[in-house]
Write the structure tokens for this entry.
Amino acid sequence: MIRNPLKLVLPLAVFVTVIAAWEVYVRAAEVPAYVLPAPSLIAATMRTDWSLLSASLMVTLKTTLAALALAVVGGVGLALALSLSRIVEYSLYPFAVVLQVTPVIAIAPLLLIYMPQDAAVLACAWLVAFFPILSNTMLGLQSVDRNLLDLFRLYGVPAQRSWRARIRSRLKALWYLRGPAALPAFLAGLRIAGGLSLIGAVVAEMAAGSAGAGSGLAYRIIESQYRLNIPRLFAALVLLAMMGVTLFLALSALTTVLLRHWHESALPREA
Amino acid sequence: MNAPPLVSLNHVAKVFANGVTALDRFALDVREGDFLSLLGPSGCGKSTVLRLIAGLAEPTSGAVLWPGAIDADHRGEIGFVFQEPTLMPWASVADNVWLPLRLRGVSRHDARDLIAESLALVGLEDFAKAYPRELSGGMKMRVSIARALSVKPRLLLMDEPFAALDEIARFKLNDDLLRLQRELRCTVVFVTHSVFESAYLSNRIAIMSPRPGRVIAEIAGAVPYERDGDFRTSVAYAELCRHVSQVLTRSMTDGRLG
């Protein structure tokens, strides 16, 4: 797939160089592990603490994926409702914006008061991930070619004009035209939401962490910081980063699969 | 031989919501079998005329009448070709042609023959499975025409369909369009701002004034309506173009004064 090997070789070389330099520096300067652990020590910690870390990884992964799934359901559902009815749009959209612009870290303590802890963490992650899906899907739904909508009116509008028939005709337009037209924008929103749901999960775990019972990766980071177990902190951080990268790659692959036939963004670039 | 017109625009005015008067005192009869060109400067309301005929817009005053039809069901199908191909990029060529039929409730299976037939009419039978991005500008426009033909229209409305094409592609499509109109015996209303294109294609040319648009001259029957491969280079065609240009120039001047 990758035509230019440099695209793979160069970042790899940079990575190896930085890790090697880090290792050499820590050993040469005899930096204590509680300040900066060497990469080899982080790797060793990953192995020894794996049962603890992997359990935490699963917790955070579950929260992130569940939040993303709920964000898709909620975001797309609300976008569809908003695009079907102006009344719904006018009444609800402003509140979606308010939810989005309020920093989630500030809402987290409240959610922790009102909900059981895992539900609160999930709600936080959902709140952050939900908006990009909503706004992108709405943008996509509205960006149908006007001429195509005219064709729709020419051939698809029912003679009887009851509201039931109107809704049916709008649903048809949604299914035939607006849905496919919205797909690229929705997928762009999904890629953003994937990263955000992880951030939301981490933020919420950190906010909840002081309450004690959490066991996600972000909680492990806070805990390791208190205990000055910096190698484990780094190991947890590496796992979080890898999770983010994997999520991004998976969502990018999904985009390519769904759009490869027709959308500019997913076409292989001509040489 | 005095059949009522297929569609008749009767003293039509169209004022848009923003206050712009697109059409004023607009009168035009489209007769069955016509290849009628609407020729006029850009912004004179030519496209609005097509949208009124198609029922995509309502006249502010006046009426669009279908004298031969008892109700909307008896008007026959309308095919609409836009200035841009406006294909669905996510759908194959065949599925794009299917769209009007699909909206009419025809399943993909039942539409099979009609789709194949329409694609054959425009010479794209081998491209049914292709996606729009794989086609050239001229081929996309052919798909757009095939889509309009799929419903077997009695009236074909075309809004500067070839304006964005290069001359060679346009000449070819002009000839194909004339052949299609003869074969299918449909009526065509063709919007253009090209004197040469209107002279080549039409048996009637309605010349419109600048906005607010109305028909200020009509040219019909100046040259026998026989088009073949030699017509484009013939003296008769050159004469006709000259005549149309003259009328257009005169109308533009008069239109401004009036």
Observations:
- Chain A has one domain: 52-259.
